[in-house]
């Protein structure tokens, strides 16, 4: 498992009874997590003294309950700054486990010894975009949500990266890739973090089981003659790491590289265990 274990401002303190106890900077949140199926004693005082608690409804969805939590606050990861706020369906605007991937591709960009163009699809609030830009890449950031792209821009400003070569686009990711192919544009690296299900800005339906493999195939047509890496992340339980390995290995077989896929996770302070948080597939060039 690839573990995001370099955080100072974020911590999974404990997990029990379908929930995780987290520290986001100076604030304590309790949020549901479907992986936490065990029932262990809740001994940490944070279980009783929290700033935000998301209660899952038996009818679907849920609601936040707050205690001295600001509407927005910031946390830092190395040189990056993220603006957080609790919003619908338990989220805060950041997936901390993705730092395991940020560290991996940032090192590859820094050591490439050349300019690197990165395409980030389903780019959300820009964690991967900011990490790639901070490492020295030029980035095209694409997401179907205007609000998420605006949020990502705020994170770039807070991180001091607003002057970096980042192209911000509100667009359907598949249609954007198809247009880029027609334009003859190429990238040295592709990052994608597709949702299990979603809709584009014009109501386009995205279902990952049907669409992920064709999209990976399309994106290989955008790769430059010397691609550096290709990263696919998934929170869909049906897409095991071996499935990601197979898709990447099949579609990038014409390039000289290797594929590895693993679960990604977050260390749990109280137990010493690692909480699984999805899976990632990584293709990287050999002698790039």
What can you see in these coordinates?
- With 288 residues, the protein is an alpha/beta fold.
- It folds into two domains: 2-84, Golgi alpha-mannosidase II (Immunoglobulin-like); 96-285, Rossmann fold (3-Layer(aba) Sandwich).
- The protein is built from six helices and 17 strands.
- The chain has helices spanning 99-110, 127-134, 146-158, 173-183, 208-220, 241-251, and strands at residues 2-3, 10-16, 19-24, 27-32, 52-56, 62-66, 73-77, 80-84, 117-121, 138-143, 166-170, 189-192, 197-199, 205-207, 229-234, 257-267, 274-285.
- Strands 1-16-17-15-12-9-10-11 form an eight-stranded mixed beta sheet, with helices on both faces. A five-stranded mixed beta sheet has the order 2-3-4-5-6, with no helix packed on it.
- The longest helix is centred in the middle third of the chain and has 13 residues, at 146-158.
- The two termini are 25 Å apart.
* CATH level-4 homologous superfamily of the largest domain: Vaccinia Virus protein VP39
The structural class is alpha/beta
Q: What is the β-strand count?
A: 17
Shape: globular
Q: Which SSEs are present, and which pair or pack?
A:
Layout: E1 2-3, E2 10-16, E3 19-24, E4 27-32, E5 52-56, E6 62-66, E7 73-77, E8 80-84, H1 99-110, E9 117-121, H2 127-134, E10 138-143, H3 146-158, E11 166-170, H4 173-183, E12 189-192, E13 197-199, E14 205-207, H5 208-220, E15 229-234, H6 241-251, E16 257-267, E17 274-285
Parallel strand pairs: 1-16, 4-5, 9-10, 9-12, 10-11, 12-15
Antiparallel strand pairs: 2-3, 3-4, 5-6, 7-8, 13-14, 15-17, 16-17
């Amino acid at each position: 498992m690839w573990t995001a274990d370099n955080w100072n401002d974020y911590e999974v303190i404990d997990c029990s009874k379908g929930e995780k106890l987290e520290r986001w900077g100076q604030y304590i949140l309790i949020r549901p997590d479907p992986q936490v199926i065990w029932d262990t004693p809740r001994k940490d005082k944070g279980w009783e003294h929290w700033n935000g608690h998301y209660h899952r409804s038996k009818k679907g969805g849920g609601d936040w309950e707050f205690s001295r939590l600001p509407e927005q606050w910031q946390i830092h990861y190395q040189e990056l700054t993220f603006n957080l706020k609790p919003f619908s369906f338990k989220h805060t605007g950041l997936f901390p486990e993705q730092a395991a991937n940020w560290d991996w591709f940032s090192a590859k960009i820094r050591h490439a010894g050349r300019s690197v163009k990165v395409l980030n699809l389903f780019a959300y609030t820009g964690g991967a975009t900011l990490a790639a830009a901070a490492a020295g890449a030029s980035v095209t950031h694409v997401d179907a949500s205007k609000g998420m792209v605006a949020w990502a821009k705020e994170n770039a400003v807070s991180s001091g990266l607003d002057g970096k070569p980042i192209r911000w686009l509100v667009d359907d990711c598949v249609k954007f890739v198809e247009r880029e192919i027609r334009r003859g544009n190429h990238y040295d690296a592709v990052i994608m973090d597709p949702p299990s299900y979603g809709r584009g800005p014009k109501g386009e339906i995205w279902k990952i089981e049907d669409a992920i493999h064709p999209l990976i195939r399309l994106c290989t047509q955008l790769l430059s003659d010397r691609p550096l890496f290709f990263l696919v992340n998934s929170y869909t339980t049906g897409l095991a790491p071996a499935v990601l390995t197979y898709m990447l290995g099949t579609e990038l077989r014409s390039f000289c590289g290797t594929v590895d896929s693993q679960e990604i996770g977050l260390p749990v302070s109280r137990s010493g265990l690692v909480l699984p948080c999805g899976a990632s597939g990584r293709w990287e060039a050999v002698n790039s």
